[in-house]
Specification:
Elements (H helix, E strand, L loop, with lengths): L3 E5 L7 H6 L10 E4 L2 E8 L2 E9 L3 E6 L3 H6 L1 H4 L9 H7 L3 H9 L12 H10 L5 H15 L1 E2 L9 E2 L3 H6 L2 H6 L4 H12 L1 H5 L6 H8 L7 H11 L13 H9 L6 H8 L6 H10 L21
Antiparallel strand pairs: 1-5, 2-3, 3-4, 4-5, 6-7
Helix pairs in contact: 5-16, 6-10, 6-13, 12-13, 14-15
């Protein structure tokens, strides 16, 4: 199968691995892979399943396979963060300087940006799986559900890659299969609720981010954290803060002010960096390690299949 191709040169600094790496759910994510010096992604596009391979030379060389290949190439600039405006971020850092953020921004070459997959339901579904469980649990559930209920990755994708399920596929998963994948009742209900209005959700990608967050939060089982995680990736939501995260306030607190914080305290500390508050968080995550002291054992992953 011959690929469709497109070459595109961003007019701005772009760290592809760090920027698009935010889309991957662990090293074993079936929809995201680094192999042979290229970044591979699959996506359930409106035109059908598609596979995308990105290589960086003096420009970005993209190859795409499958029914969704043309759609992926059409929206390549959005995936490569063209909608994420960072022109004023240097001024924001100058007005509220912090050595951790400045050093991380320098290490990234000013190229840490937020992609826009333009597939909002797809990002909602994986964010729901991450609600109130450990990362290990969420990633295991995502892998199993994509492999079993998604579709094969078109083209010569690396072994183990697959395309995430479409809304109809999510709705067709029987209860015992959710249980086998370790997904409790509240999360499966939230994904089903979003899947029933998936087409309307994906239309929100052309609306303001705040409107998308507001609409998402009207759905059963979806709150500010899930909405923020989805729009960060589907709509270049660089100011959408993941409020409600168990670890994030302390990570931000120790990195920026040297103490523990709650959500309100985190938002106060981040307020000088608006409209780049989530970018500041990402810089904390990828920059010089300043982490909270460990005070106890990590949570053990729960296996719902044993219940």
């Amino acid at each position: 199968m011959e690929p469709l191709t497109r070459e595109w040169s961003p007019s701005y600094p772009l760290d592809i691995r760090r920027s698009l790496g935010h889309l991957a759910r662990g090293k074993g994510d079936p929809t995201h892979r680094l192999a042979d010096g290229a970044l591979w992604r699959t996506a359930p596009t409106p035109a059908g399943p598609g596979t995308l391979r990105l290589r960086r030379t003096d420009r970005v060389v993209a190859e795409a396979w499958g029914p969704g290949g043309a759609w992926l190439l059409e929206h390549l600039p959005q995936l490569l963060c063209v909608d994420d405006v960072v022109d004023d971020f240097a001024g924001v850092l100058e007005a509220a300087p912090h050595p951790v953020l400045s050093e991380a921004w320098r290490l990234c070459g000013g190229g840490l940006r937020f992609p826009a997959t333009r597939l909002l339901f797809d990002q909602v579904s994986v964010a729901v799986l991450e609600q109130k469980v450990t990362g290990i649990e969420a990633r295991r559930s995502w892998r199993e559900l994509v492999w079993r209920f998604g579709s094969p990755a078109p083209g010569p994708a690396p072994a183990g890659m697959a395309v995430a399920p479409y809304p109809a596929d999510w709705l067709a998963i029987p209860d015992w299969e959710w249980h086998k994948a370790g997904v409790d009742l509240s999360r499966r209900r939230a994904i089903r609720a979003a899947a029933t209005v998936a087409a309307r959700l994906d239309q929100l990608v052309d609306r303001p981010v705040v409107e998308a967050v507001r609409v998402l939060c009207t759905l059963p089982g979806i709150g500010p954290w899930t909405a923020a995680e989805a729009v960060q990736r589907a709509m270049s939501g660089a100011d959408a803060v993941s409020v409600g995260d168990f670890h994030l306030p302390n990570v931000v607190g120790w990195a920026l002010v040297g103490r523990r914080l709650d959500d309100a305290g985190m938002l106060e500390v981040l307020s000088p960096y608006a409209p780049h508050r989530q970018r500041a968080i990402r810089l904390v995550e990828v920059g010089p390690a300043v982490r909270p002291p460990k005070r106890g054992p990590r949570f053990s992953p729960r296996d719902y299949r044993a219940f």
